[in-house]
Amino acid sequence: MTPAEPPSGIGNGAVAIRVAGLQKNYAGVKAVRGIDFEVRKGEIFGLIGPDGAGKTTTFQILAGVMEATAGTATIFNMAAREARQETGYLTQTFSLYPDLTVAENIRYVGDLRLIPRAEIELRGNRYLTMFDMDRFTDRLAGRLSGGMKQKLALACALVAQPQVLLLDEPTTGVDPVSRREFWDTLAHLAIDGLTILVATPYLDEAERCHRVALMHEGTIHQTGTPSELRGSLGAKRLEVHTAALSEAEDVLSGHHDGILDVQRFGDRLDVIVREPVEGQRQVKLLLGAANIAIDSVRVDEPALENTFVATLRAIGREVKSPRYPGLHPHRDIMGQIAIGATNLTRHFGAFTAVQDVSVEVKYGEIYGLLGANGAGKTTTIKMLCGLIEPSTGRMELAGESGSLRSREVRQKLGYMSQKFSLYDDLTISENLNFFGGVYGLSSDEIETKKRWVLEFAGLEGKETALTGSLPGGWKQRVAFGASIMHEPSVLFLDEPTSGVDPLARRAFWRMINQLADMGTAILVTTHYLEEAEQCNRLGFMVAGSIVAEGTPGGVKRAQTGHLIETITTEPQRAADILRTDGERWRISLFGDRIHNVTDGDAETSMRETRATLAAAGIGVLEAREIPWSLEDVFIAVVEKAKREERLAAK
Amino acid sequence: MRRILAQARKELIQITRDKLALTLALVLPIALLMLLGSSISLSVTELPLVVQDLDNSAASRSLLEAFRNSLTFHVVAWPVNKPPMEAFTANEARAALIIDRGFGRALARGGDAQAQILIDASDSNTAKLIQGYSSQIVNAWNSTAGGAQRLLPVKALIRLWYNPGRVTKKFYGPGIFVLGLSMFPPLLAALAMSREGEQQTLLQVYVSSIPAHQFLLGKILAFMVIGFAEWVIMLGLLFTYFGLSFAGDPTPFFVASILYFFCVATYGTMIGAAIPSQAAAIQAVALGGFLLVFLLSGLIFPVENIPPGLRWISNFVWGRYYMEIVRDALLEGGGWAAMWFNVLVIGIIGGVFFLLSWRRMRRMQLSI
Amino acid sequence: MIAKLFGGRMAALLGKEFAQIGRDKRLRISLILPPTLQLLLFGFALNATVDNLRLGIVDFDHSRESRDLIAAMTQSGAFRSAGAFTSAETLGTGISQGKVDAGIVLPVNFSKDLHRGHQVGVQVLLNAMNANTAAIAQGYTQGVLGTWNQVMLKSGSLHARFTQIGAVPRDLRGIVTLHPAFIFNPGLVSSWFVVTGTFGLLLILNGSLVASAAMVKEREAGTVEQLLMTPAGTGEIIVAKIAPLFVLLCGMVLFATTLIKVVFQIPFRGNLVIVFLGAALCVLCGIAIGTFLATFTRTARQAQLMSFFVNPPLSSLSGALTPVEAMPHWMQPLTILNPIRHFGVITRAALLKGSSIDILWPNILALAAITLVLLSLSVWRFRKQLG
Fold first, then answer.
1. CB spacing of B2 vs A111 below 8 angstroms
2. Were B166 and a residue from A149, A469, B51, C131 both cysteine, which residue would form a disulfide, CB within 3.0 to 4.6 Å?
3. How far apart are CA A354 and CA A342, in angstroms?
4. What's the pLDDT band for A177 if we cut at 50, 70, 90?
């Protein structure tokens, strides 16, 4: 397990994967339209793009399970199909057998690849120990959490000791804690010389790749290291904090030279400007003219997402967000309690899924419920919207506290579950007619709303297409439209934007904000923590309880510790050393940078880190305190809650 | 070989984990054998018979007594003034015996006395049996009580072979045994195969670069084991509850059984490979496994009865050949001399199925 | 009008279900293909007719009389000649190897004995493996030999001893001849029985299969929660799901009826309304069974596998393919609970015999009662699951 080569050598090794002019056409659809890229040995290369970008097709060709229409895909100069013995492939569904145990899954894959029985055992145990899963060898794969399934799938792929690892959206449906652990593992493996090609729709994950390619509709638009891509934008990001977000957004969104983009979050606006000083001045001027008070402005680097958005805009992929034709706004009840849950507890047999949860959401508020898999999020949302009854506790919903299942209450609710909201075997138009009709809308109103949904989804003239034939992102938009046709006063959104591209995600949030401005109470769950920034208030769930609650800024400020970023000459070894005297979760590796969460004073911590690493002969190039991201907060909160639970158990 | 065994081992583990499938594989065949073995029968008894004795003589009463004493009929009273047809439309009788006036006098004269039996022929097979039984009763009555008590030139010495008691279940038992073997192993095999496609685990197999024939053989082997388990259980039932035993040399039966396990397991695998949807695969297997074997292999009625337009299909029905072998082994005892061709055909059909599934899978990659 | 009645919501639910079913190609196929195949295959393949049995002949006598008897046997329609065998042993081998179904052995002095006034025993071997065939073949053989005897006696070419009558009571000197008359089906067409039975079988089996798939679909696709969040009531959801299935399956009833009439030429002697009433009840019954199964399962696969546990008892205890009277006695009462049995009685009586409603009302009542019980049970379970 010694590093094969120094991190500075990454990207200089031999070419491991070479894709040239690759094309794939299915019955009339051009899934991949001629892409080129090279991945060097030991590199983590990210293929970033929304659903339908052509990532899976590229992976299937590279894994040798599909033939290309044109172009070549080689692995170590062998045709992909001939190189299968060198390849490990994680499909989106992980391709595990749910009715086999962890050990049986590993053994089956090992046997198929003709690895000596003793070696299978040895390697299997090694990886399971490494992934902290050695206690679960006899558990059925179907009973594992999303994060553990992902690790098992990785262990299965690694048992054959491949040279190249192909990971197709390995973190979809996996919670942030497991996701971070997974990326730590990948960083480790890459340093051992493994070449990793990974696809992901999450732009924050792209930050952890050595190089990334932005892919959209079968074409690669930009390739480079994350900082190159960020730099290519040639712009800075201003975080503008103000109380009047909606008005400020309207003022700044008008076309102004120098302001490239405005994005609204839960308690701030992000304004992308060409030049920080001039931009700041312009923002202050514009907002001042409109009598909007500014609390603070902070200058930061743009995120990768900003780059991707700019790229998509450059190719004319702007997503429209037409004004919602709201006929019955709920502004008069704004500020009243829409969802009021007091001490909800729910048992399933002997298991307590939710313990003592209290949530209050007012009309006009966007509340985000965050939590790892199995934290009780789904059970909570089902109780909040009346689908299941709490074992104990009091519920008030849309002004009703007695029968939450009454027709009157349901008429006021809107609900969109992650991927099961529409009927695949109906056309878009039929789906919308159904949801309009079942909520008793007049046919005129159905027509108006239908036109709006089609425009919002960018599907005008395609209303007779079968819903099942739409790519995920489009479907999500139609589903969202369908769930708000009847203008609910309380809206539940369960992971509404999974698989949606950044532009569409913005359109979603613009619409969610519009609804909130109309007085709708909105409860949203998400795995995507960047997105959680857009909520007015957040609740973090761990093991069935809400352990932290507040505005995005509030929960960050509530963190007692500090976040330190350290850049060293040998990141992997440095991370290993730092981990030995702390809790694992406090250290994580982002490319060549180490993030360290410390509870003490920032200066002391940086001094200690320098000293520890110097003792091991590792030089520290730079160390500084950085602001908390929601993901850091989330992981810190979860880990601390777990530690307390463990202590309480003892 | 190691890959084949690993594949088979995995399939068997999966079967044991699926309670519904396991019940289907091991309990349902027994239930089916007991249930169908008992209920499929054409040997009717106690059929309701109405009689209208318009003569009411000593002779007519004696003949009626003969009908009353038979096990086949159960005599139901019917008013003389009511048309007997009404008993049929009301489902109260299956036949009506009418003895006309002058019956006794005709007999005393030594001439032919006429009696008529009306038979409800909406069930034609039962109607034929009624005809046969009633004429046998009348013949017997003629030769014991009537004027036919004389020397007949030719007398039939009928000998019933293989099943002298004409026990129905001895004939249907082996048939249902074959039906069970033709249905459940391929059903499970098809499910296992189409599930790999449906849940995309097949991709993992493709990446492992295992050759198609090894992958298929591993799967087939597992379901041959399932077939063997069912075979043992059901054969046990045939030997006990159905009172059957080997009638002759059982070796062709053993060889054919192994080939048949291969044949049906491969059939299921082939269907599963062609239809990557479990629900659709079930229907396809039910069609091939059940409908063809139940109807076109001579399970209930001889294949020869099927009109020629359909009969040719039965030449391709694998169950038909195996059914002949099983009945031969348990009833006729014809051995290799009688059955070598059937054994060969089962092997050939199994081989064809394997070739077809291999053709479908040979590239071991996504077909689009 | 209807839309007004149900406040638009019912119309939306019905519209959705009809559109989904209308687009379901597999469902459409499974409403046409299996019933057609089942009717045709069952109707043609399950043929009880015993004819053309292969008769092996061993004729040691080679006389005019022996040839005459053989001709009488093979011209009867029940048997056809499958060639001559040299000995009883080779004939036995022929039977055991399945080359012939029956055999007749005519002894050496066949004609000589007849002329001398000795009774001759003719050995007839029957493969009785198939009990039914053997019973009918036995009847045929007796009949052929009986007729041959009569003909020989009347021709007067035999020894006088055969015409002497034994000592019998004075009033029973004659012979009784039984004249059979086949009512309702004089041609003894086998398919008339099978097809009228299969009709009910296919309604219930296909109905339950289609229904279980439709009912489990929403849960398998995960859309059920979305539906439950709408103001639609569980009662409305169930009615909206059942209604289009009912309409479609009634279409299948018409299709099958046409097939029965056109292909099998079954006479429609009675009131077709009774048959359609029974068929509609059967369809509902099938839907109820399917819905009930669906409430125990989460996937279409499981629902279909469940049907393997329900269909065999349903079909084998129905009297659809074999007469109920042929079942063991303890089993026969169980068929009272089987909707297929009642429908079989109704179709056979109404179509073939022209029975009227005043005779069939007990069966219709029983069918309605079974349907009602099953339907309430499955709706109750389905609602409980939705709620």
1. yes
2. C131
3. 12
4. confident
Query: How many CA within 13 A on the CB side of residue A120?
Result: 17
Give yes or no: residues A19 and A91 share one domain: yes
Distance CA A280, CA A613 (A): 39
Show the domain range for C343.
2-46+189-386
pLDDT value at position A111?
A: 92
Beta bridge partners of A538: A368, A550
Verify whether the Cβ–Cβ distance C176 to B107 is below 8 Å. yes
And the tokens for A48? 């970033």
Q: Which chains touch C (3 or more CB pairs under 8 A)?
A: A, B
C3-14 per-position pLDDT tens digit: 444 558 888 999
Whether residue A75 contacts residue A87, with contact meaning beta carbons closer than 8 Å, is answered with yes
pLDDT tens readout for residues A626-650: 888 888 888 888 888 878 877 777 6
Do residue C242 and residue C336 come from a single domain? yes
Is the pLDDT assigned to residue A81 strictly greater than 80? yes
**Chain C residues touching A387 at Cβ < 8 A:** 225, 228-229
Task: Judge if A498 and A593 occupy the same domain.
Answer: no
- Domain-terminating residue out of A246, A280, A301: A301
- Of the partner residues C24, C225, C232, the one whose CB lies closest to the CB of residue A387: C225
The answer to whether residue C264 is domain-embedded is yes
Of A340, A344, A374, A369, which Cα lies nearest the Cα of A356?
A344
The reply to whether C34 and C110 lie within a common domain is no
Of C117, C170, C196, the CB nearest to B108: C170
Residue pair B126/B44 in contact by the 8 Å Cβ criterion: yes
Give yes or no: residues C63 and C36 share one domain.
no
Q: Give A56-65 pLDDT, tens digit per residue.
A: 999 999 999 8
For residue B231, what pLDDT is reported?
96
Does the distance separating the beta carbons of C221 and A411 come in below 8 Å?
A: no
Please state, rounded to an integer, the average pLDDT across all residues of chain A: 86
Residues A389 and A450 in one domain: yes
Q: Is B19 on the interface with A (CB under 8 A)?
A: no
Q: Of all helices (H) and strands (E), which one includes residue A604? A: helix A602-615
- Under an 8 A CB cutoff, do C11 and A437 touch? yes
CB C12 to CB A424 under 8 A? no
Contact A477, A456 (CB under 8 A): yes
Helices (H) and strands (E) in chain C, counts: 14, 5
If you compute the radius of gyration of chain C from its CA atoms, what whole number of angstroms results?
30
Q: CB–CB of C162/C330 below 8 Å?
A: no
ipTM value for the complex: 0.86
Whether residue C235 lies within 8 A of chain A, CB to CB, comes out as no
- Among B36, B118, B164, whose Cβ lies nearest the Cβ of C183? B118
